């Protein structure tokens, strides 16, 4: 450990991180405002210090080896921690300030994440928010790589992970939705069995919502609808429903918003509550500054129905 601390410099870390992202040594040297021979020398130094090759030269550029990807991940976390140190010093001196990088699934935005963001920026003008929306598994990788500070989602692969803090926030129902003029809206006695033969628009097979729908059909001992159209985008789902007779599934928070605006309608079919509840996930061994701590408190309060967050 002492050997690494005395030999590694911030320039080594920024070089590895930049080279992993650009895969081009010339471009990396320009971004870091150094000559290409200097960049080459720094790369040779860190590879010699660690005793492993970090990048492999290929026709398409400098490709990170497994060692290189590992070092880049730790470099990103270390540089993020240095930035957080300055932020924490500013917070201690002036009060709550800094940047909170939030990753969230789209379904959690309307009634959970957006109100919490609105509250914290209203309370603290010096707080900046960075929002990333994606599916839960992608956000989990972003969190572990140090690109976001917290995530709100339904990650499947974190049941046993000592590196993560996982807090359950709330459950949510799913709704089956169609276009406002869909013929099935005229029926009042619908069941899931009646929808097996319809064409469906669903999230990709690896998503928590897709697995929940598959489980719902299994519980009812029904065959899963064949050949569904797949999309992870809420916007694409709404557009497709407007132009087709497809059936889709959305979290109730999302469907209620678009129903209020007349964009879609909900079918009177009750789905079993199988979807995994939202979780608030952070890295276990990384200190949380005042802004991040306040953001987490507001998310917990919003999930519990407490508007104050105190």
From TrEMBL:
Bilayer-crossing regions: none
- Entry GO terms, CC: cytosol
Coiled coil where?
none
Extract the Gene3D superfamilies matched here: 3.40.190.290, Winged helix-like DNA-binding domain superfamily/Winged helix DNA-binding domain
UniProt-listed SUPFAM superfamilies: Periplasmic binding protein-like II, Winged helix' DNA-binding domain
Q: Which GO terms describe its molecular function?
A: DNA binding; DNA-binding transcription factor activity
Task: Tell me which residues make up the HTH lysR-type domain.
Answer: 8-65
Q: Which UniProt keywords apply?
A: DNA-binding, Transcription, Transcription regulation
The UniProt family comment states: Belongs to the LysR transcriptional regulatory family.
Q: What is this protein called?
A: LysR family transcriptional regulator
Species name: Gluconacetobacter tumulisoli
């Amino acid at each position: 450990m002492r050997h690494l601390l005395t030999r590694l410099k911030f320039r080594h870390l920024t070089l590895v991180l930049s080279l992993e992202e650009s895969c081009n040594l010339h471009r990396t040297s320009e971004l870091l405002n150094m000559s290409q021979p200097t960049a080459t020398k720094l790369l040779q130094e860190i590879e010699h210090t660690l005793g492993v090759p970090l990048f492999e030269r290929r026709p398409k550029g400098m490709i990170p080896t497994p060692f290189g990807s590992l070092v880049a991940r730790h470099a990103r976390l270390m540089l993020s921690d240095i930035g957080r140190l300055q932020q924490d010093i500013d917070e201690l001196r002036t009060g709550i300030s800094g940047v909170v990088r939030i990753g969230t699934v789209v379904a959690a935005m309307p009634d959970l994440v957006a109100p919490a963001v609105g509250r914290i920026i209203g309370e603290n003008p010096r707080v900046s928010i960075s929002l990333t929306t994606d599916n839960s598994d992608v956000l989990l990788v972003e969190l572990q790589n140090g690109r976001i500070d917290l995530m709100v989602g339904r990650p499947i692969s974190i049941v046993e992970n000592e590196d993560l803090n996982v807090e359950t926030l709330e459950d949510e129902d799913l709704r089956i939705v169609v276009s406002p003029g869909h013929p099935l809206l005229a029926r009042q006695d619908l069941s899931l069995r009646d929808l097996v033969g319809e064409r469906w628009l669903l999230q990709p097979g690896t998503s928590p919502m897709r697995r929940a729908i598959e489980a719902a059909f299994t519980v009812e001992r029904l065959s899963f609808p064949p050949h569904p159209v797949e999309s992870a985008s809420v916007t694409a789902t709404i557009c497709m429903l407007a132009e087709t007779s497809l059936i889709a599934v959305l979290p109730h928070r999302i469907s209620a918003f678009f129903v209020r605006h007349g964009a879609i309608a909900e079918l009177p079919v009750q789905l079993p509550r199988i979807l995994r509840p939202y979780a608030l996930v952070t890295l276990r061994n990384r200190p949380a500054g005042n802004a991040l701590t306040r953001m987490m408190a507001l998310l917990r309060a919003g999930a519990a129905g407490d508007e104050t967050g105190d």
